[in-house]
Design brief:
Blueprint lengths: L1 H6 L11 E4 L4 H15 L3 E4 L2 E3 L4 H4 L2 E7 L8 E3 L4 E4 L2 E4 L2 H10 L3 E3 L1 H4 L9 H7 L4 E7 L4 H10 L6 E6 L4 E3 L1 H16 L14 H13 L2 E10 H5 L5 E11 L1
Parallel strand pairs: 1-10, 4-9, 4-10, 5-8
Antiparallel strand pairs: 1-13, 2-3, 5-9, 6-7, 11-13, 12-13
Length: 256
């Protein structure tokens, strides 16, 4: 399924993004939109009608992915790291950068290990099969964002920024349960705010992952980065039911 979504993406020439925002709903709803972001992270090369792969370039350069997303089920202050050694999917196990997590917890008081927050959470895990298909060997730094300020989140992102070996993925859907036309209007306004790096314009009504998005926007603004919208649709476009829809966007961040 993931390979099929990637095959449908039209690749645009340009710099491999440092960060992406991708949705985290069920793949039948948001998978095509998420693929728009991941195909830019490491553009796929079609080897046969039944497979998608990438060769060289970012696929082999990227060794660590920082994953930030909202906590849908657990309430806590700060950001929740994990004590797990790996996250498993049907495509295999993805190792956790345990050294980075230990350093974060020792340096930044807003970060702590809270495995209970990760137990039922899907927001980070649904990103992993896309990463497993487009990248080679890599580790993850999985962080769920609870009650944390933009400054606190931006500080974590800065601490993990790294170089060419590191990329950042923010997991977030957009508006929830509006009619189709209202969702289109709301999500278009949200996309404009994200593109302009205006974190102060975003709240929970615009995106369930507004906190990690705002942290990224703040860090990106300080670094003079540029954001571009790749795809902006909702579940009415992918599932056909336009009564109560959820919005999805794919965004990429590159250096100006």
């Amino acid at each position: 399924m993931v390979e099929g979504f990637l095959r449908e993406v039209k690749i645009t020439a340009g710099t491999v993004p440092k960060a992406v925002i991708a949705p985290h709903a069920g793949y039948i709803y948001s998978g095509p939109i998420a693929a728009s972001a991941y195909a830019q992270l490491a553009p796929p090369v079609l080897r046969s009608p039944d497979s998608v792969g990438t060769e060289g370039g970012a696929r082999d350069t990227i060794k660590r992915v920082v994953l930030l997303g909202p906590s849908h089920y657990a309430l806590f202050d700060g950001l929740a790291a994990t004590g797990a050694a790996a996250f498993a999917t049907p495509l295999g196990a993805v190792p956790v950068d345990t050294v980075a997590i230990r350093e974060l917890c020792s340096r930044l008081p807003q970060v702590s290990v809270r495995d209970e927050a990760h137990a039922d959470e899907h927001a980070l895990e649904v990103q992993l099969p896309f990463l497993q298909v487009v990248l080679s060997e890599f580790k993850i730094v999985p962080l769920l964002v609870g009650e944390a300020s933009d400054d606190e989140i931006a500080a974590v992102i800065e601490a993990l920024w790294g170089g060419e070996e590191t990329r950042i993925v923010i997991s977030s859907d957009l508006s929830h349960y509006h009619d189709y036309e209202t969702a289109q209007q709301t999500d278009s306004e949200t996309a404009r705010a994200i593109e302009s790096l205006n974190w102060k314009a975003l709240g929970g009504e615009q995106a369930c992952g507004c906190r990690p998005i705002c942290g990224l926007l703040r860090a990106a603004k300080e670094r003079g980065m540029r954001c571009r919208t790749l795809d902006l649709r909702n579940s009415g476009d992918t599932s056909g039911d336009r009564g109560r829809v959820v919005g999805y966007g794919a965004f990429v961040f590159t250096q100006n």
